[in-house]
Specification:
0% strand, mainly alpha
Length: 76
């Protein structure tokens, strides 16, 4: 259950970041928060993206058993 919550938070943060990337791109700016925070360390930046991607996989494969909406007998 703790992994599900962490994954959920990371996926929300990742989604908001991608939304800012799109808005920044349309306005001619770089609004990629991850890049702005750790862009000088490309390896760290890639690790952040990898963790967010792994969080999406955790939700993809584990969401149904944890979610009350998807599974009325879910543990949440």
């Amino acid at each position: 259950m703790k992994l599900h919550k962490i994954a959920f938070i990371l996926v929300i943060i990742g989604g908001l970041n991608w939304g800012l990337v799109a808005l920044g791109s349309w306005m001619g700016n770089n609004w990629n928060v991850v890049n702005l925070l750790v862009g000088t360390w490309p390896t760290v930046e890639n690790i952040v993206y990898l963790i967010v991607g792994l969080s999406a996989l955790v939700l993809l494969f584990g969401h149904k058993k944890e979610c009350r909406e998807c599974n009325p007998s879910g543990m949440m």
